[in-house]
Amino acid sequence: MSSLLSKLGGLLAHEYALIRRVRGDIQYINDEMASMQAFLGDLSSAAAPQGHDRRLKDWMKQIRDVTYDIEDCVDDFAHRLSHDPGGDVCCAFVVSNVYELWTWRPRRNIASNIAELKVRAQQIGERRIRYGVENPKNGGGHHGGHATGFQAAENQQTRLEIVGTKKPVGVEDDMKELGVWVSLQQQQQPVAATSPHGPSSSSSQAEAKKPDQGVLSIVGFGGVGKTTIATALYQKFGDQFDCRAMVTVSQSSDIEAILRSILSQVMPQYKDGNDQQRSSSGITLEKNRLVAAIGSLWPKGHPGDEQSGGSTLEITQNLKKHLEEHSYLLLVDDVWSASMWEKIKKSLPKSKRGSRVIVTTRFQAVASACIRDKRDRVHKVVVLSGDKPRELFKDESEISEENFKNNIPPRLWEICGGLPLAIVIMAGHAACNPDRQLKEWEKVCTSLLPDSAKGLSQEGVTKILNHCYNDMPGEIKTCSLYLCIFPKGCKISKKRLTRRWMAEGFIGEKDGLSVEDVAETYFNHLIRRKIIRAVEHSGNGKVKSYQVHDMVLEYIVSKASEENFVTVVGGPWIMAPPSNKVRRLSVQGGDSKHQKIMESMNFSHVRSLTLFGSLTQLPSNSLKFGIVQVLDLEGCKDLKNQHAKEICKMLLLKYLSLRRTEIEKIPNEIGKLQYLETIDIRETNVTELPNNICQLDRMVNLLGGNKKTRKALKLPQDMKKETMKLLRILSGIEIIEGPSTVVADLHHFTDLRKLAIYKLNIINGGKLFRELSSSIEYLGGYSLHTLIIDDESSEFLKSLSALSSPPKFLNALELSGKLVELPEWITELDALTKLTLSVTALTTDALHRLSKLPKLFSLTFSLTSANQDPEIATTIWVNLAHSDGEIVISAGGFEELKLLRFSAPCVPVLSFLDNAMPKLKRLELRFSKLEGVYGIENLEDLDEVHLRVHDEAGDFTKFMVDDIAITAREVDKGPRITVDQYHE
User: Fold this and answer.
1) First to last CA, the chain
2) Among 101, 594, 797, 871, which one is most buried in terms of CB atoms within 10 A?
3) Which residues are 979's β-sheet partners?
4) Are 784 and 811 in contact (CB under 8 A)?
5) CA–CA separation, 330 vs 262, rounded Å?
6) Nearest to 60, CA basis, from 576, 580, 562
């Protein structure tokens, strides 16, 4: 309702557009809605844990419906009367009269609708009194928490983390027993030691034996921890297998998509679709070897990715061809039918080197169907008992020892009946109410479960979820309901979600924080509440993507349907919307059954459309283009250039995502979308923007190009005219010398937070060179936080040291290309948390300088095949010669570094001395040739080493990887080693 009130205020300001008496009606509606918002806020604060009675729910539904209809009317007003008559003072009278005559009919229609809505608002207010809907009273057992609203400034998260796999609580004995089963009977060599053309000779004896196959079925009801156990087994023992894959099935019937997902994971990972040649092998590091190692990895062909496409039969044949000669571990999560399991099982070949398949399911029938051999087994997961519920609650709530001892009653986890999901959700509830006292928590327990009862049943999870939902502040409730837009089991980008929150008007500036920062605090609050779970962190230590547990998502879908907040079509839960007016539509499937459901819906009120799959799933001519504000077609098939012209008719669009579609051109009509704030055309074939896009003064996020391939977006010439001054993210652009006008002057983007230049090639000392250098220096003094530059010539990178005023507020910096010398001012970046540099800058001295950065969280040295220059090999060789042939990381410095990555065709000798990098958690190496890694045992905090090896790496590299992996397995408390293949 907050967004509606702001729109009504804006409407009242348009004197020119209002006809007589309408202004009074709008003012009445505005005042009435403000009163209703305050009343609903009081209801939310005083709500009893069990929720509201039916009369109150019905009255709240009426308020929601009239609020939606008023907002539709206001948006229709903006759509149909979007032009201010304006004009000179001398002719204002004539222009005003002409404008009134020209717009008489639409203004009359809108006035009529407003009058009807005023009457409806009056009737709703009267109906509350007539049917005895009482004023809110303080609900027992539900105190504090959100009554005063959400304090965004107090909920900022400053801790940076790396997502790790937590050991399941309470199932240590089961994990030990199941771990014995998952391990192959014969000792298998890691993936790097296995030739892609067949097994190594060291496994010839194992091949002579009967293949060691097996299926483990983990069965139990929802929320009991099946996936947690299965994932822990997969993570712990995955490095013993040549190939690994995990896939979520749920109620999906698309066997082709499931098998394609498995194939894409077990095959070596491709980058840019380019084929590579085998690299040379050897032990001593010499210049000619290094040149050969790097030069042999430049693209020689373009085989495409036919192996991951094709029909079900073709995919099955490719699986057989690859997996027969390799050991593999497969995790098939959440299987709902025995028939689907049979289809998957028939598509999996018997490996000559052994295989393990872990299946999780809620149904005993599916578990029984998995038993076909004496090696197969079923493991039933039961609820936690003894001290395990307390241990899990304490671990998840992260409450201080003193607070836990004095204010948290044991009954708070006892009422959860030992169900892990319920315990985790309740722990999140406690974490978000740290000031609540013991007596208040006891009232909560009593309201959820009478004293006579021992513990909640499985259905009681819904009761706990409902209680925790009612406890949330109103704005957080709204954002949580929005989670059901995305399909079950999906890994969702945090930025995709938060940008959509902002476009929907759920979030505004608060407590002195920008709207982006407020969105971040809302997101972090949902993580703390355990409503969502972080599954991936970016290099800056912040959450990159998340997932929602299926039982939590089921509750959210039900709640969103009840409130007609989101309508989901094609998901696993079939819930009829309470109204045929669809406000937000998420299409997650398109078979005949779902098509029938959509035919009965009224799409004229859709303000948000999200489509997963094909554009053909959507009924034709079903949308009233005028009021759609969020259009998310990311990954949508069948989207063509002609569709982009239709999209440009949606004049109120604020968020438009065409990411990973086949679109090739943005039409000139894009200039009509005056409300557009975000356009995402990353990973498309769009390489140039029309000049008309510069007319979009509300543009905040302009996202283009492809980060992996470095395909970039050319800026329009009109960008020079100081337009789009609100721009905060400009990502994926190119600045290259050429005959056409090129934009490099970015001074007027004083609000810019992120600048990402994927392709830079300009003449040293030229006009573009001076403009860009001056722009970076100027913007660095404002709000620029992230700077990414990929310089093909390296001349611009060299000039950065000459900046008189370096960008000291940066928290993320990436400099790619032939970077040799670090900028002099780099050690002055006290706020820097993420740093990515070309491997050409890697020396022992450079590392020593970088070790002084006080907040550095992640450090990456990389070299991609896009940088095709033999001079790079010479540069690397010279650097190593200056470092005596190895890179030494000594003690001292890097006090906050937790992630260290090297990605290059050839990774030199790395030596970690005692007490080096004291907080390092994860070490990632991606290479075709590895000279050696020594002193890993000196990294006391190291949890994981991830080795990604080229599928045609040399024998010495394979031997080195084998030695690292085998040594790590022999140490119980050492870091976990994960070995993967890639193909460039």
Assistant:
1) 51
2) 797
3) 947
4) no
5) 8
6) 562
- How far from chain centre, in Å, is Cα 276? 31
Laid out side by side, the sheet with 933-934 consists of: 886-889, 909-912, 933-934
User: Distances in Å between the alpha carbon of 732 and those of 147, 516, 752?
Assistant: 43, 20, 14
User: If you average pLDDT over residues 298-315, what whole number do you get?
Assistant: 52
Q: If you average pLDDT over each of 499-503, 650-654, 712-716, which comes out highest?
A: 499-503
Helix H or strand E segment including 632: strand 630-632
Tokens of 744: 């490099």
CB-count burial class (<10 Å; 0-12, 13-18, 19+) for 350: exposed
**Token representation of residue 331:** 């995790």
What pairs with residue 862 in β-bridges? 838, 903
Residue type, 66: V
Report percent pLDDT > 70 for the chain. 77
Measured CA to CA, the distance from residue 887 to residue 903 in angstroms comes to 15
The residue behind tokens 């822990």 is 232
**pLDDT tens-digit map of 46-91:** 554 445 567 777 777 787 787 778 777 777 666 665 544 444 445 5
d(CA 970, CA 967): 5
Strand partners, 216: 358, 377
Using one digit for the tens of pLDDT, what is the confidence trace for 107-157? 677 777 777 877 887 788 787 777 777 665 554 444 444 444 677 767 777
CA distance 606 to 593: 21
Q: How far apart are CA 364 and CA 458, in angstroms?
A: 17
With b meaning 16 or more CB within 10 Å and e meaning fewer, what string describes 116-137?
A: ebbebbeebbeebeeeebeebe
Q: Which residues pair with 333 in a beta bridge?
A: 248
Residue 20, C-beta contacts closer than 8 angstroms, at least 6 positions apart: none
Position 101 confidence tier, pLDDT thresholds 50, 70, 90: low
CB-count burial class (<10 Å; 0-12, 13-18, 19+) for 448: buried
CA neighbours within 13 Å on the CB side: how many for 445? 23
DSSP three-state, residue 901 = strand
Kind of pairing, strands 944-950 and 976-983? parallel
Give the integer Cα–Cα distance in Å for 819 and 148. Answer: 53
Lowest pLDDT segment from 93-97, 250-254, 600-604, 968-972? 93-97
- What is the spatial distance between Cα 903 and Cα 816, in angstroms, rounded to a whole number? 12
Look at the alpha carbons of 447, 450, 453, 459 in this order and tell me if their dihedral is positive or negative: negative
Amino acid (one-letter) located at 470:
N
d(CA 535, CA 519): 19
Q: Is 438 exposed, middle or buried (0-12, 13-18, 19+ CB in 10 A)?
A: exposed
**How far is Cα of residue 265 from the mean position of the Cα atoms in its chain?**
19
Q: What is the pLDDT of residues 815-831, one digit of tens each?
A: 988 888 899 999 999 99
Position 358: which residue type? I
CA 517 to chain CA centroid, nearest Å:
16
| Element of type H or E holding 311 | none
Q: Residue 949's Cα: distance from chain center in Å?
A: 26
Q: How confident is the model at residue 365 (pLDDT cuts 50, 70, 90)?
A: very high
Give the residue among 472, 363, 361, 463 at the shortest CA–CA distance from 416.
463
Nearest alpha carbon to residue 538 among 834, 205, 258: 834
Taking the mean position of all CA atoms in its chain, how far away is CA 754?
18
Closest CA to 927 of 878, 866, 980: 980
Q: Which helix (H) or strand (E) holds 441?
A: helix 438-448
Which amino acid makes up residue 815?
A: L
DSSP states of 244-276 as a string?
A: EEEEEEET---HHHHHHHHHHHHSPEESTT-B-
Pair type for strands 929-930 and 933-934:
unpaired
pLDDT-derived band at 211 (thresholds 50, 70, 90) equals: low
Least confident piece of the model among 2-6, 304-308, 316-320, 407-411: 304-308
154: number of Cβ within 10 Å: 8
Q: Which residues contact 239 (CB under 8 A, 6 or more apart)?
A: 190, 965, 969, 976, 977, 978, 979
